[in-house]
Specification:
GO molecular function: symporter activity
Subcellular location: Membrane
Organism: Culex pipiens pipiens
Distance between the termini: 5 Å
Keywords: Disulfide bond, Membrane, Metal-binding, Sodium, Symport, Transmembrane, Transmembrane helix, Transport
Strand order of the largest sheet: 3-2-8
Protein name: Transporter
Number of strands: 9
Largest sheet: 3 strands, antiparallel
Oligomer: single chain
Strand content: under 5%
């Protein structure tokens, strides 16, 4: 018998035996073990598709086409692309690189990068939490409409329903009345036109609008009249949260697989809708409304401001989502390539979605014998009023309605995944001992999300939705992004940061270094200040249609909007007070704004090798 020692790998954290192995190939194994502590993307394209799904969302379909039409048509692409290069892409690349280098989510990343500004991470998690509450309500509406689309005929077709008002106006019913030589007025067909000659002219409301407001939302007269929780929407909201929970119950390992479908399926539907749209009468007129460039608009600050705001909220920096997704990357992942791919895909998707939407709007205008501008809408109005009204005029309306709302569901789910993962990661990074109960944490966050979302499905829910949507991710997000940019480029140092990037993706050219240094130090912060000032100048109190919110509601909105920034300030004050050293205030600030000793690359080895006890070999 001969005794021969063998190598074994031992955790430097717990001192426990990991596995029996030889020293060859150690570096790669150690790096993977570091990532496994928090979980990591298991597939080659998991991160890229998750990032694509997070960045390409509902706004690309229901907001960008409207902005493009309203800001000079095709001319809008010029400021949109410029703002992408000088604001959107630099912030996205910065956050992806920062989180991938440290392997941490926002809650702990800033604690190590700059303890004084640890509140930046908390602020981001808070923004994600608030947006998560009302964003899933959109998915609940979508589920409601998708299920309702299986009814024949579609439930929002025609005005003879209990939920319609006297102002409901159905063009199909009007056409049938005209065929009988009658006159259509306030849902009724009158054989004798002289009977209504002296009647007052009333506003016309399409059945789809009445269905959305009176049946789905059961909208009250104002935010102060809360009313009851909608039972049907409460079940839809529960289903939406159940879907999110099931897809995130295992973290990025499960959500990374779901996005292969949810990130790519919307493109299939958009292509199908485009092919169908361009074959409809009036589609050419609609597309020309969308594309016709008005070069004079480029001289207006409005077009540049709208482009900057749209690209900022499309890529969603400073919400915590980009940092969270990138924190699960392998250290050598080419995040620079990923940022460019997603940014370019975002603008191309937005532009293509405009063709789809305006070909459909052109058809609707043709059917109603009116101008495209009169049927144009954005946001929820486009998704839940204009499109449902249009689809009733197509052949196979059930098929196209189910397809459209299923597309909206998949578009929204990817963004919701990232928002919820940001909150869960923030909790687990802050309390790492809870990782053993991750399933319970995810369930707890989903439960809180469901309960918090109930206010948005009351009779006054739409008023609360508009209020929170306007303020939740506005002022604070812009301020957090500006401080983050200054922190990384000036305090941490852009040169040092680029060296960290080169550790991950390899050495870059001199032009690369100069280009990104100028952007991060000067151009991007200046652009963020421009967006902030533009939002201040353009600020108007929130409204919904003709409804003016009471003063107390605006105050609540401002509190919601400034709360994340308040967390940043209060955390900084706490850090200064907690420092009981004899240093002056200036010395404390200088010390606390610098990285701690814990700030390091995620590739640091957590294992060393020891010889095992002698084993007997025969």
């Amino acid at each position: 018998m001969e005794y021969k020692p063998k190598l074994r790998r031992v955790s430097t954290l717990t001192g426990t035996w990991v596995d029996r192995s030889v020293a060859s190939g150690v570096a790669d194994d150690e790096q993977d073990e570091v990532l496994t502590r928090r979980g990591s993307w298991t597939g080659r394209f998991d991160f890229l598709l998750s990032l694509l799904g997070y960045s390409v969302g509902l706004g690309n379909v229901w907001r960008f086409p409207y902005l493009c039409y309203n800001n000079g048509g095709g001319a809008f692409l010029i400021p949109f692309t410029v703002m992408l290069v000088i604001a959107g892409l630099p912030l996205m690349f910065m956050e992806l690189s920062l989180a991938q280098y440290a392997g941490l989510g926002p809650a702990v990343l800033f604690k190590r990068l700059s303890p004084l500004l640890q509140g930046l991470g908390f602020g981001m998690v808070l923004v994600a939490l608030v947006v998560m509450l009302y964003y899933n309500v959109i998915l609940a509406w979508t589920l409601f409409y998708m299920l309702a689309s299986f009814e024949e005929p579609l439930p929002w077709k025609g005005c003879h329903h209990a939920w319609t008002s006297r102002q409901c106006y159905s063009y199909d019913e009007e056409s049938q009345c005209l065929d009988l030589n009658g006159t259509y007025y306030m849902r009724e067909c009158y054989a004798n036109a002289s009977l209504i000659a002296n009647f007052t002219k009333v506003a016309k409301k399409p059945p789809a609008e009445e269905f959305f407001k009176n049946y789905v939302l059961q909208l009250s007269s104002g935010i102060e009249h809360t009313g009851n929780v909608s039972i049907s929407l409460s079940f839809c909201l529960l289903a939406a949260w159940l879907i999110v929970f099931l897809c995130l119950c295992r973290g990025v390992k499960s959500s990374g697989k779901v996005v292969y479908f949810t990130a790519l399926f919307p493109y299939v539907v958009l292509i199908m809708l485009f092919v169908r749209g361009i074959t409809l009468p009036g589609s050419y007129t609609g597309i020309m409304y969308y594309l016709k460039p008005d070069w004079e608009k480029l001289k207006s600050a409005q077009i540049w401001g709208d482009a900057a705001v749209q690209i900022f909220f499309a890529l969603s920096p400073a919400w915590g989502g980009l940092l969270t997704l990138a924190s699960y990357n392998k250290f050598q992942n080419n995040c620079y390539r990923d940022a460019i791919i997603v940014a370019v895909t975002n603008i191309l998707t937005s532009f293509f979605a405009g063709f789809v939407i305006f070909s459909i709007l052109g058809f609707l205008a043709h059917e109603l014998d009116t101008e495209v501008g009169t049927v144009l809408d954005q946001g929820a109005g486009l998704a839940f009023v204009v499109f449902p009204e249009m689809v009733t005029k197509l052949q196979m309306p059930m098929f196209w309605s189910v397809l459209f709302f299923f597309m909206l569901l998949t578009l929204g789910l990817d963004s919701q995944f990232a928002l919820m993962e940001t909150v869960v990661t923030g909790i687990l990074d802050t309390f790492p001992q809870w990782r053993r109960w991750k399933l319970r944490v995810v369930f707890g966050v989903a439960t809180v999300g469901y309960l918090g979302g109930l206010v948005f499905i009351t009779n006054s829910g739409m008023y609360w939705f508009q209020l929170v949507d306007k303020y939740a991710a506005n002022w604070s997000v812009l301020l957090i992004a500006t401080i983050e940019c200054v922190l990384v480029a000036w305090i941490y140092g852009s040169e040092r940061f680029i060296q960290n990037i080169e550790e991950m993706i390899g050495q870059r050219s001199k032009c690369f270094v100069v280009f990104w240094t100028i952007l991060w130090k000067v151009v991007t912060p200046a652009t963020l200040l421009f967006i902030l000032c533009f939002n201040w100048i353009q600020y108007k109190p929130v409204s919904y249609g003709k409804y003016a919110y009471p003063e107390w509601a605006d105050i609540v909105g401002w509190i919601i909007g400034l709360l994340p920034m308040g967390v940043v300030v209060l955390t900084a004050i706490y850090k200064l007070i907690a420092d009981i050293s004899e240093k002056s205030l200036a010395e404390k600030i200088i010390a606390l704004v610098r990285p701690t000793d814990e700030w390091r690359a995620a590739k640091v080895a957590l294992y060393h090798f020891e010889y095992d006890e002698p084993v007997t070999e025969l």
